[in-house]
Write a structure and sequence with these properties.
CATH class of the largest domain: Alpha Beta
Helix content: 25-40%
CATH topology of the largest domain: Rossmann fold
Number of helices: 8
CATH architecture of the largest domain: 3-Layer(aba) Sandwich
Shape: globular
Strand order of the largest sheet: 2-1-3-4-5
Number of domains: 2
Distance between the termini: 27 Å
Order of helices and strands: EHEHEHEHEHEEEEHEHHEEE
Strand content: 15-25%
Largest sheet: 5 strands, parallel
Structural class: alpha/beta
CATH superfamily of the largest domain: Response regulator
Number of strands: 13
Length: 247
């Protein structure tokens, strides 16, 4: 980016706001903080931000309500929650959160998630002209299927017209799990293991949300053909139908 990315941290805990703000500041980000959703909206009305780190559990208006109030033009959101269950996670994903972390979280993991979300949003925001040699191998390792391209190093997805497709971290991991195990029946538990690792148990129900959103985004980019890419096999699991090549 040609400018310093600006992060808005929204949390009612002053210590957490300070910790995250100082850590991100040491890694090249400009930060601002808000102790509640009204203060968040006031800052958004005054300044441009590239991403919001938003706590779920706050007195008065909570983070999910605040997320719901954000318009389509709002910056991407990474939500933090001290709640161990998956209900808030699922609702947050359904409302459009780009990622979700449990508190207390490792600041380095939060930093990595922030960089990933910003990188994807930047790629989608910048027009990507179709090059005559769009079918040639780009730099880095790729997975290719039905004209689509996943650039694994950059964690980006391009449709058959070479246009970038914006995916959340969870959607990207799920698609990669499918693409790395093509043309075979996989179970929900396998998808959880491959896409969420040690956090799999907490995302059992969230897989359905991620899959629904992933299918919708593929359909928006490729039309009806995408409906057969990820097939649901009753009482068995799922099957990623395309042939996948690597390179």
């Amino acid at each position: 980016m040609d400018y310093t990315s600006r992060i808005l941290i929204v949390d009612d805990d002053d210590g957490i706001r300070t910790l995250i703000s100082e850590f991100l500041g040491k890694h090249g980000f400009e930060t601002a903080t808000a102790s509640n959703p009204p203060a968040m909206r006031a800052l958004l009305a005054e300044s441009r931000f590239d991403l919001i780190v938003l706590d779920v559990m706050m007195p008065g208006e909570d983070g999910l309500s605040a997320l719901r109030s954000l318009g389509a033009a709002a910056p991407p959101v990474i939500m933090l929650s001290a709640v161990g269950g998956d209900i808030d996670r699922i609702v947050g994903l359904e409302l459009g959160a780009d990622d979700y972390l449990a508190k207390p979280c490792n600041p380095r993991e939060l930093l990595a998630r922030i960089r990933t979300v910003l990188r994807r949003r930047q790629a989608v925001a910048v027009p990507q002209p179709v090059q005559p040699d769009a079918g040639s191998d780009p730099t880095g390792e790729c997975l290719r299927f039905d004209g689509w391209r996943m650039e694994l190093d950059m964690r980006l997805l391009f449709d058959p017209q070479n246009r970038p497709v914006s995916l959340t971290d969870g959607e990207y991991r799920l698609l990669r799990a499918f693409a790395e195990h093509p043309r075979r029946v996989v179970t929900r538990n396998q998808l959880l293991d491959w896409s969420r690792g040690e956090d799999g148990d907490q995302f059992d129900r969230a897989i359905d949300v991620q899959l629904s959103r992933l299918r919708r985004k593929l359909s928006d980019a490729a039309g009806d053909r995408s409906q057969e890419m990820i097939r649901t096999l009753r009482n068995e699991g799922y099957l990623f139908a395309p042939t996948v090549s690597r390179g």
